[in-house]
């Protein structure tokens, strides 16, 4: 099963040995969307002017979710994350909420999964807080935008 | 902010009081996709014939993820889940992996978030195990298919 | 060691058997304070008018902390919490932040520890977010205000 | 909101980027109290002579609590703690239990929150184990005594 | 794969649906041993007379471990445990430490795994605390002694 | 209590200060067994040919369990694990399942407990998945095979 590094020679899942890798600065940026009806989005953006704020609760959930990545993803290495930031913005054109997460560490393996997990948890939290109004929201286009550091070097998503 | 039950009268986020709700049987079904290149999908489906198996690792991650829902989603109630099942199938037409999760409980609040979280964690795990081969995979169309039980009754996604 | 129910006849710590207790509705309310300088409090209250908000982050931390009570307190029973609400208010007279948490469940044991844990975690989070400005803040007067339900009945703190 | 480092330029909460900070040895010491009636304190200190021991259970809870800091405090960085020690002593003059925690790490950010969390969890555990006898106990004077290491240097509490 | 209830008709692992099962009182008792040299055992039993106590730390670890069972065992149902008690005794004849755990719940599935997990975690903790003195200790004979409640009825281990 | 490093001079449990230790590469290997009837073992090994697979679920549980070591074992240091691999094999001669775990880190303290915890959790998971067929299975001979790195140097189990 060449290429799938999470399996050993016998095809058994394992946590890849990164002990020989250099400790380097690593960065990953991911994004995702919660698509919803325009009226639902209005409800959220109006809320931002008040004290209760769907976006700030979801941002915090994403930050805390990033710290749980190694608990959630079976073969992920635990990592001392040095930065997590999330940006949630309303986009009337989709319409929906766009989530972007950037995560940094200085370690032997990358933080792509931490950035993607932060995005996913923030999207799920948006869903949770708004589902009483619209159950048909869709989480979509969750993907890695950028990865830097480590032997495999820089990756940037097309378009 | 009418309709957004996770905020109190002052607009503060809180965990909704469900103590007055009846304990009823509740079911939720959610789905989602990891879209990838056809060659990547082939790598996964070949693996199924061997011992190492991307889909079975991801299925397990989804089951365990469902049990972590109340830890991940800030305003979610902890619930004694009575069933979690995930189905992961390769779909050459997208191409990609489709994930479906169904969750049951007997409680005072629904399990939509548990089903969606199971799907999201399984999708993230597929990504993690295959990312060495393709970083451009996209998690998409994560949505609730069905919800049953509780006062608000049955919900079925259109189409 | 009469009275200390968390020890058995031999003086060994154990998780008390509550299996014979009735399932009743239970409520607990606790409070606590973070005392700080007036200038520090001003910094927080000014922040409330903007998007970043010490109090809303701390409120959320308290809610999530309540769900972790049985993980933190060794002999505490895990409980399906049905409600958590926190109220954080600035009190210029102390000066400081007052935290009040109320927690409900329907179960065989009370939620005093959940309410107190919610208060403690919210206070610690206030400290964390403001410590760059003042390290000398003090968490104080964390106590149970009210407890209701269960065989031991109602308790209300004096004054 | 100058000074509040947990918010970015737009006032959004984030986990501060510490990736540029030097890895240095860091130490923090915190203290706190559980104030109670003299008779309740007697019950605890008598217990120390027997096998069941409120103080040793609470000490252990504090040590384990320190390891959960980054899970509890939303914007706290996960850290590889290298030492945790708690000292719990009965003080008949207050009367009550005094808790002191000292925590060390070698990292890019300090361990003040770990020390304070250890104290808070130990105090909550004392409360839990003794609450059947006295519900009116108060957790108080939880504060940082000492912090050393890192760019901001040494801090010592007054008095 | 008849008999292995954790697999569905297609051989996929899932969390068994217990939603149709009756809520009954359930009890499980398990035991296990840490075998060690007589001199090592002496060191532990001498310690019991002092304040530091290998057995009481391990007992507490077992109690807290029982509460983590559903997080550790992938297909285990989360359960509101109503009682956990551990008994650790020195047995000079083996020589070693015997651990016995009993766990109760009122639920739709049994607590065998909780009792076994409590025993395993307590044994691991004994090992951890004494390993500086003897690395050759062996955890052995971890087994279910008794199970009661539920449709499958009572089970008692032979001899 | 000479030799028991987890206690300080007063006999109080604490997490040993490793801040002065060198960061070195560390390896630990542990093993353990689940003894069962020959017919039960047959059921498991037949399953390996199908999609559902007791051994692969248990392997994954062991990997994830290794990451939870510092949460389970009270005085264990949190560690950034760099590798976890488990090998589960059927041994008709015992009869039973043999579990071997190897864990690596680059840190200030060893990974013996991580390797032993991985073995214990994998064994518990085997038990969980097969207990509907045989409740009398026994977890046995869980022990450290090898430890390398750190000041105390190499340890290899006899026989």
From TrEMBL, chains A, B, C, D, E, F:
Keywords: Lyase, Molybdenum cofactor biosynthesis. It catalyses: (8S)-3',8-cyclo-7,8-dihydroguanosine 5'-triphosphate = cyclic pyranopterin phosphate + diphosphate. PANTHER family: CYCLIC PYRANOPTERIN MONOPHOSPHATE SYNTHASE (PTHR22960:SF29), MOLYBDOPTERIN COFACTOR SYNTHESIS PROTEIN A (PTHR22960). Its EC number is 4.6.1.17. Substrate binds at residues 75-77, 113-114. GO terms for biological process: Mo-molybdopterin cofactor biosynthetic process. Belongs to the MoaC family. Gene3D superfamilies: Molybdopterin cofactor biosynthesis C (MoaC) domain. Residues 15-150 form the Molybdopterin cofactor biosynthesis C (MoaC) domain. Coiled coil: none annotated. GO terms for molecular function: cyclic pyranopterin monophosphate synthase activity. Catalyzes the conversion of (8S)-3',8-cyclo-7,8-dihydroguanosine 5'-triphosphate to cyclic pyranopterin monophosphate (cPMP). Pathway: Cofactor biosynthesis; molybdopterin biosynthesis. CDD domains: MoaC_PE. It comes from Silicimonas algicola. InterPro entries: MoaC, MoaC_bact/euk, MoaC_sf, MoCo_biosynth_MoaA/MoaC, Mopterin_CF_biosynth-C_dom. The active site is at residue 128. This is Cyclic pyranopterin monophosphate synthase. It is an enzyme of class 4 (lyase). It comes from the Bacteria. Homohexamer; trimer of dimers.
